[in-house]
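Example (one chain per record):
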Amino acid sequence: MVPRLPACPHLPAPPAHMDASALSAHGPARDVNFYLTALTYGHYLWQHGQVARAILKLDRALLSDLTGNEPVLRDWPLPYDAMAWLLRHAPPDIFIGNPRVHFQHLADRMNEPRREQRRWRTWACWGLARVVRPEFAADPKHAVEEPARELIFAQLVAHGIPGEPELWQAAMQRAGA
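Predicted structure:
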């Protein structure tokens, strides 16, 4: 039996039971409602010891189509702090894969819609993974130019929502960068 993991202070409290139907119920919409469900389901998976799947749900939340004006973002901002927290608190005996490689591959292979926004959010998570879990190596078989922190910030300015670059930068600082 997988131990119940502690609550993440950066994610909404999940209900007693959740499954993938919570996300599929949104159909193709990747709006604010999908965003909140992805955060909540990620937290549910985390608390039930499914750390790798929880990280993937935070990815899905980050890839949602938000303008920055959604009231929910006041309580549950883009989950950069949540991502760093999960990476830092993942028990060593629970599989999480290699987050650095995951984000590297995802960012380099991002498709539309909103390709650049989604791509730079993924590079931002890659930056967090490098700070929080420096023991994870890059994929030597995947030739990609890894962006500098300054470039990620600039691209979040260009493609993110208002305040996003500063939100990520603050998460990086809290993570130890």
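Caption: The radius of gyration is 15 Å.
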